Amino acid sequence: MSNISSEIQELLDLIEKKEKMVAMLAPSFPVDFDFPEIIGMLKRLGFKYVAEVTRGAIETNSQFLDLIKKNPDKRYITNPCPNIVRTIKSSYPDLAQYLTPIDSPMSATAKIVAKKWPKHKKVFIGPCIAKKLEAKEDWPDLDILVLTYIELKQIFELKNILAGEEDEKSDFDIKGTGTRLYPISGGLAQSSCLNEKLSDPEMDVVSGPKIVLKFLEEWPGKTDLKALDILSCDGGCINGPGVCSKAPLPERRQKVIAYWNKK
């Protein structure tokens, strides 16, 4: 197969060497993969364990709510979206002071995995290309390999990994149920019950390039706004550039909601 990325080649090399690996699957995975089959497929590919990144999102929420509690007068722009972080640092450097200085769901999950299974290679699989930069630039010490869903499907094709009956009994080795709506715009606010901590004028949810840029430009003047749950892609991570699905956004949303309802 042509167009093999360096990340695909790195994972293929790890598989060939039979290295111990943990897959960290982003919350948007139901858009492209069926549960529980995807878990069994990853393990047959060569992963020893599979962690649900929603578990790390629980830590992100906890850290965020702790910030608000300790600093009630401060204002915050959430940091789970690496594209937002980079947009702010490059184009709106004056706003960098408002970025939440906490773990993203990816980094929080990686820390949990590192503690539970030391000496295992951590591989994040998600919808976002910018996560590759986050791993290399923001969390180099965590040594995370990042692949998109598109790249994972390429690897499945290369290795002839297809869903089978045995995969239907699979489950996550680390899971987090309450944060499974995270990849939908407003998922952080919803799962952290932010509306119980802040009033409507004090919080807002935005996604999509045009709206995001407008909000960032207006942020300094929105002094009543204490917390902004912000994602770069329109509709959230379910619309990331590393997603395979061409289905309409409402259909992608419904797949994530259906999986969330299984809890």
Task: Describe what this molecule looks like in 3D.
The N and C termini lie far apart (38 Å). The protein has a single domain, classed as Rossmann fold, CATH 3.40.50. The longest helix has 17 residues, at 54-70. The chain is built from eleven helices and seven strands. The strands form two sheets. A four-stranded parallel sheet has the order 2-1-4-5, sandwiched between helices. It has a three-stranded parallel sheet with strand order 3-7-6. With 263 residues, it is of the alpha/beta class. It is globular and about 55 Å long.
Q: What is the topological layout?
A:
Blueprint lengths: L5 H11 L4 E5 L11 H9 L3 E4 L1 H17 L5 E2 L4 H10 L13 H12 L4 E6 L3 H9 L5 E5 H10 L28 H5 L2 H4 L5 E5 L1 H10 L8 E5 L17 H13 L2
Parallel strand pairs: 1-2, 1-4, 3-7, 4-5, 6-7
Helix pairs in contact: 3-5
Task: Sum this structure up briefly.
The protein has helices spanning 6-16, 37-45, 54-70, 82-91, 105-116, 130-138, 149-158, 187-191, 194-197, 209-218, 249-261; strands at residues 21-25, 49-52, 76-77, 121-126, 144-148, 203-207, 227-231. It is α/β, with parallel strands linked by helices and 263 residues long.
